[in-house]
Design brief:
Layout (H helix, E strand, L loop, with lengths): L2 E7 L4 H19 L7 E7 L5 E2 L2 E2 H6 L7 H6 L3
Length: 79
């Protein structure tokens, strides 16, 4: 029984979260052959005051006009 827990910054719409959970469910079903009925996916949302990225409290980054870090940017740079 695959159990998939996504930790996510608060602020996504219900539609976005549903799409993410559906995509993860499909990926688990297709990649490891898990029966659809056995797959569990849930989202744990965190407020900006509850986590840091790169040593900076996310609430501080957002209040100074910054945006949440995009992990794809680092991957694209080859780092």
């Amino acid at each position: 029984m695959p159990l998939i827990n996504v930790h996510l910054a608060a602020g996504r719409t219900d539609e976005q979260k549903k799409a993410l959970m559906a995509a993860l469910t499909k990926a688990a079903e297709e990649s490891i052959g898990a029966p659809l009925q056995s797959i569990r996916v849930w989202i744990t949302e965190m407020q900006p005051t509850e986590f840091m990225a790169g040593g900076e409290l996310m609430a501080d980054r957002l209040s100074s006009g910054g945006t949440p870090p995009d992990p794809r940017a680092k991957a694209a740079a080859g780092s």
